[in-house]
Amino acid sequence: MIQYRRPEKNELKDIAKMSAVTFSDYPMFHEIRDEFSDMDSFIDLMSEVQHVFLKAYYKNADFFVGEENGEIKSFAVLIPPHSPKVNIFDYFLSGALKLLGKTSLRKLLKLANILEEGHGPISEIKEQSWMLEVLAVDKSCRGQRLGTKMLNDCIIPYIAKQSSGTKPETFITFTNTEGNQKFYLKNGFTEFDYTTIQRNGQTIGNWSFRMTIDPAQTATH
Question: 62-68 and 3-5 as β-strands: parallel, antiparallel, unpaired?
Fold first, then answer.
């Protein structure tokens, strides 16, 4: 049975590696991945990038891991409404400068630009909403509905519990794959925007979603 908890800070490095492996085939990262001679080198870099990202967000975001028999199978990063925005200084404090020993500034800026473009459609409502920044399942556990379980058994009840009074909460996220688009629609999200991102002659889909969480209704389930 999956148990959910907040990870310790010393677990972030392992979670970062799991995330890098999980998203290694993600369309947003094709342009960066193609610059590496082998997949292992790319995953090593993305593990370090993810580790810096997680450390930067750890203080002001809600982190969850799904654990079974002592092994982390899934994890999520949830950003609360009006959470302090992570800035370049936060990334430096989290070790961003060390990344320059592993790759060029050009590649890092390219990666940052791609991620920023993906966030574009949801940026206007992000301040007033709960933002699912990351939802990842260990690649070896795909097909076990662990992402669905984390949403329905952990994240959505958590948002409902944190709600002030009976006011409905807005829950948003985005993805860049058709498979994930279907996943979010099946799990109760509504698609409110679709755009495309052009990179090196490739067209990347960018789907944005929202969900209204009613604390009163959630409490009855």
Answer: antiparallel
Q: Rounded to an integer, what distance in angstroms lies between the CA atom of residue 162 and that of residue 90?
A: 26
Q: What is the pLDDT of residue 179?
A: 93
- How many residues does the structure list for the chain? 221
Mean pLDDT for the stretch of residues 140-163:
93
Nearest to 180 by CA among 6, 22, 8, 41: 22
Beta strand pairing call for 71-79 and 62-68: antiparallel
What predicted TM-score, i.e. pTM, was given to this entire model? Answer: 0.89
Q: What's the angle, vertex CA 50, arms to CA 121 and CA 161, rounded to 5? A: 65
Distance CA 24, CA 167 (A): 38
Looking at 15-165, which runs of residues are DSSP E strands? 62-68, 71-79, 130-137
Interacting residues of 150 by C-beta distance below 8 A, sequence separation 6+: 2, 4, 64, 66, 74, 76, 135, 137
Give me the amino acid identity at 142: R
Give exposure, 119-154, as e/b (b: 16+ Cβ within 10 Å). Answer: eebbeeebeebbbbbbbbbbeebeeeebbebbbeeb
